[in-house]
Amino acid sequence: MLNRTNPENRMPGSAEAGSRASAGPDPMNRVPGSREGKGHMLVGIVGLGLIGGSFAKAYTKAGHEVAAYDRDPSVTKFALLDGGASRELTDDLLPQCDLVLICVYPEAAIRYMEEKGPLFGPHPLVMDCCGTKGAVVKRGRELGARYGFTYVGGHPMAGTQYSGYKYARENLYQGAPMVIVPPRYDDPAFLAGIKAMLMPAGFGSITVSDAEIHDEVIAFTSQLAHVVSNAYIKSPTARRHTGLSAGSYKDMTRVAWLNPEMWTQLFLDNKKYLLRELDTIIANLEQYRAAIDRGDRGELIRLLAEGRDIKEEVDGAGKNKK
Are 180 and 150 in contact (CB under 8 A)? Predict the structure, then answer.
């Protein structure tokens, strides 16, 4: 399944074509996977946390060769020992890879592409897997055009409240959505090639977006949820919840257990859209508070019904019931 968010109106084709022309031969003419007809890939994984480690295990299970690198040599060594990867990802292997997945924080992903850009060559599909796309995609496209490698932005929409290779699992992406931000949107063969290279991880769908749309929506669907969950658990009453809490508490607090360094970078990278979502929810909460404070039964019923109706509108009645 390949979904689209209609990004064409955000990326004028003439400007993109002009930048490619000035950079010389277009590496995007290659259809990803077109030289992997035998079905076997060499996949490079950069960063062996939850995301990168899970990719490594998934591609290994699917029968592909995985070469991996982590800035902590002990993590790379452990991945080799437990079979998550078969080789260390070295500079000489980069141009031989069919797919390179960069699974680190946005600033580190940019630094890695800046450092290794001259080494990739035209063969690999190079994809970052960061949670924000604006700055990373902009720089990735610039570097791809300069050095002649194929770059596509990516964001696997899966994870847990835990981080680190020890929590990585081969089925993390099973049935999950994957978002890609390609350099162009009007080439079915190119998009199908990207999908073919990603599907061994087990994704249930691939959504094609652009960087701005991605960051605008993700501020609501993910980042705001993490802020609210983290703030919610700071109530003094949280320390007395045992025996008096159930599903609502668990749902609200699951993502409060987060990686502070990573989420700080993601929040600040996307502060324009995240601040807008925070202002919206604060304004909404103030309406609920005012109605409760006044004892305004009618207004409170209206607010609650409004929220219920919007949930039904956007997700469907009973869609998420088990």
Answer: no
User: For the ranges 31-35, 73-77, 206-210, which has the lowest average pLDDT?
Assistant: 31-35
Write out pLDDT tens, residues 238-278: 999 999 899 999 999 999 999 999 999 999 999 999 999 99
CATH assignment at residue 280: 1.10.3660.10
Q: How many domains does the chain have?
A: 2
- Single out the residue in 153, 175, 209 at which a domain terminates: 209
Secondary structure letter of residue 303 according to DSSP: H
Which of 82, 46, 78, 76 is CA-nearest to residue 61?
82
Q: Identify the burial level of 82 via C-beta atoms within 10 angstroms of its C-beta, where 0-12 means exposed, 13-18 middle and 19 or more buried.
A: middle
Residue-wise pLDDT tens digits, 187-246? 999 999 999 999 999 999 999 999 999 999 999 999 999 999 999 999 999 999 999 899
Q: Report in angstroms the alpha-carbon separations of 97 from 43, 94, 156, 182, 226.
A: 6, 5, 20, 19, 35
Q: Which amino acid is at 229?
A: S
CA distance 163 to 48: 10
3-state secondary structure of 68: strand
- The total of other beta-carbon atoms located within 10 Å of residue 166's CB is 12
Banded model confidence at residue 318, pLDDT cuts 50, 70, 90: low
